[in-house]
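hiii, so i know i said id send this last week but things got crazy w the move. better late than never?? heres the sequnce for the chain we talked about at the cafe, plus the structure i predicted for it. fair warning i was half asleep when i ran it
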Amino acid sequence: MTATPLVVLVGPMGVGKSTVGQLLAERLGVAYRDTDDDIVTTEGRTIAEIFVDEGEPVFRAIEKRAVHQALAGHDGVLALGGGSILDEDTRTLLAGHRVVYLSMDVDEAVKRTGLNAARPLLTINPRKQWRELMEARRHLYAEVAQAVVSTDGRTPEDVTQAVLDALELKEA
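okay and structure toks below
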């Protein structure tokens, strides 16, 4: 028998998937898992290093494997990397899961991440690149999600409660 995640969080880099995911897991009494962490552990290097050393296509293949393994083997709260929804097979696998899209606008992204160079896809003109990434991805996040929760101007605790309410989940 394979495990199935209780909740899957998707959304752009810096939206708070890790922070909210950990809070959500604590409140639900389940384990938390982040596919970006899985990749770093498995590969023994940062995501930025994989991008620089191997390029985005190699990273996306590694990410796809990590996401598919986590979807099949984790029964708690699962946070996916921001670009994981670009893969059609991944989007298909997400059907039937409780997926929440954590959203934010560009001003909030600037506040949270500073749109810094540690984010490999935001190295030149980060504000413009973030907007372009979101234009390309927003509809994909929405496509896979059962619920959309805005994080703009909210604390992680408020967002966590909004996710619980949106999915009608009870705390442990």
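btw The beta strands are 7-10, 32-34, 77-79, 99-103, 147-150. thought thatd interest u
miss u guys!!
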